[in-house]
Amino acid sequence: MSVKKFHSSIFNRDKILNIFELAKNDFRSKYAGSVLGVLWAFIYPCLTVVLYWFVFQVALKSKTDDNVPYVLWLVSALVPYLFFCDGLGGCASALTDYSYLVKKVRFDVSVLPAVRLISAFFIHAVFILLLLVTALAFGYFPKIGNVWLIYYVLSESIFLLVLGYLLSALTVFFKDIKNIISVLTQIGYWLTPLFWSSDSLTPWIRNLIFIINPVSYISEGFRNAVLYGGTPVVWYTIYFWGLVIVLDCSAKFIFGRCRSSFSDYI
User: Fold this and answer.
1) What's the pLDDT at 260?
2) Is 266's pLDDT higher than 80?
3) Are 93 and 178 within 8 A, CB to CB?
4) Nearest CA-CA partner of 143 in 225, 201, 48, 212
5) Residues 72-120: pLDDT tens digits?
6) N or C terminus: which one in the chain shows less Cβ crowding within 10 Å?
7) Rounded mean pLDDT of the chain?
8) Other Cβ atoms closer than 10 A to 210
9) What angle do CA 153, 41, 110 make, to 5 degrees?
């Protein structure tokens, strides 16, 4: 599939409307039949934050170097990581979970990873709003540098979409991909500077962590944008987008070559 055809299969008005409609249905279906419904999407992350706050701030007396409230410091990096985990898992299983649509001759399967990403983004948008309200409550008033938050939201969404196309195609043929993703996201919980500051590491270890774990670019960027209004680090921004371009080319090639075989292996 050519680059032009690949993009045109996603980015036209009718398909965008269909994607949003499918995303709303996907979002509702996750909580269909449960008493609390969509509240379950907030209960677990909120309980997780409260637990971490108690363990690290109340019990262990953890503090930040610049006296930022620890719970705010933690949540500002945790919000994008939770979106990454939710979005990555959902996008990777998009084709297998919607196998009945993949088997339809006339259905454009290229929209499915985007559907899953938008479905996950509904919750992410609410958490971003709660994060900003929490920052305001702690006295972190809006500043010009906060605009960089928009950049990081778009960067993470693009990164997830590219990974989604790549992994959703691979998951059709290698079912272990879902388990690998689960393991890697758990490891990433501790290799991403969520609970600890990257400034505590020696420069070469810090750079190594950022290279092998590009999610650090997003989580650190969120934190810097919300709390300090900081700008992205130039060298890591170049590395991050270079990686995205490489993954994008790989995703287009693999998804395009395997597309005709999806229905045979699902």
Assistant:
1) 85
2) no
3) yes
4) 225
5) 898 899 999 999 999 999 999 999 999 888 888 678 888 999 999 999 9
6) N
7) 86
8) 22
9) 55
Q: What are phi and psi of 249, to 5 degrees?
A: -65, -40
Q: How would you class 263 by CB atoms within 10 Å of its CB: exposed for 0-12, middle for 13-18, buried for 19 or more? A: middle
Distance of CA 107 to the CA centre of its chain: 26
Distance from C-alpha of 114 to C-alpha of 20, rounded to nearest angstrom: 9
Higher pLDDT, 49 or 206: 206
Cβ atoms of 91 and 113 within 8 Å: the answer is yes
Q: What is the pLDDT of residue 13?
A: 63
Give the tokens for residue 170: 């691979």
Residue 189 burial (CB count, 10 A): 13
* C-alpha angle 264-120-46 in degrees, rounded to nearest 5: 135
Give the confidence band of 11 by pLDDT, cuts at 50, 70, 90.
Answer: low
Q: Give the position of tokens 């610049």.
A: 66
Q: Which amino acid, one-letter code, is at 36?
A: L
Looking at residue 223, its pLDDT comes to 94
Beta carbons of 89 and 181 less than 8 angstroms apart: yes
Tokens of 226: 């919300």
pLDDT at position 35, please?
Answer: 58
89 Cβ neighbours under 8 A, 6+ residues apart: 178, 181, 182, 185
Tokens of 103: 């088997």
**Rounded distance, CA 48 to CA 115, Å?**
26
